[in-house]
Design brief:
The protein is an alpha+beta fold and about 180 residues long. The protein has two domains: about 100 residues, Ribosome hibernation promotion factor-like (Double Stranded RNA Binding Domain), CATH 3.30.160.100; about 70 residues, Beta Barrel (OB fold (Dihydrolipoamide Acetyltransferase, E2P)), CATH 2.40.50.140. The protein has two helices and ten strands; from the N terminus they run βαβββαββββββ. The strands form two sheets. A six-stranded mixed sheet has the order 7-6-5-9-10-8, with no helix packed on it. Helix 1 runs parallel beside helix 2. It is elongated, with a radius of gyration of 26 Å.
Amino acid sequence: MQIPLQITFRDMPPSPAVEARIRQKVQKLESFYDRIMGCRVVVDIPQKHHHQGKLYNVRIDITVPGGEIAVNRQPDEDVYVALRDAFNAAGRQLEDYARQQRSDVKTHEEHHHGRVIKLFPEEGYGFIETLDGEQIYFHRNSAVHPPFDHLKIGAEVLYIEEQGEEGPQAKLVTVGKHHLAG
């Protein structure tokens, strides 16, 4: 880290044990992404309202090349649980950031619009008419929402096209609730 770790305790006395745990957790974060430039951790006890006992809040701000990752978790009665939850969330965000930097991020497949034109319930398949008038096969296992047995002819659907053994076919077929014929 280029900037030294900053640990702040607000509305509570500093704790060497909590500070040691924070240092451990920050070291672990560096295993998710080794280009962390700086990290600030604030542990505080938010103003008491109607709750008996103390609630600990943890905020983590991590400076990375080209951005900042901020985590602010819901308060917990146990400072170590609050730290664990906050650092787990920070680790997930750092992993996502690292994947983006490596260009590992999955590209989302394009959803196409169509309309169910044929259903063969006994055989477990049907056909969708695409916007340009072609027919695309789909199997009962491709119907996500609603299940295949609830699909109706004429239902407008979204689907992802893939190449099957016998040509294009639809997968992840979904219907918006407002399109269901009942």
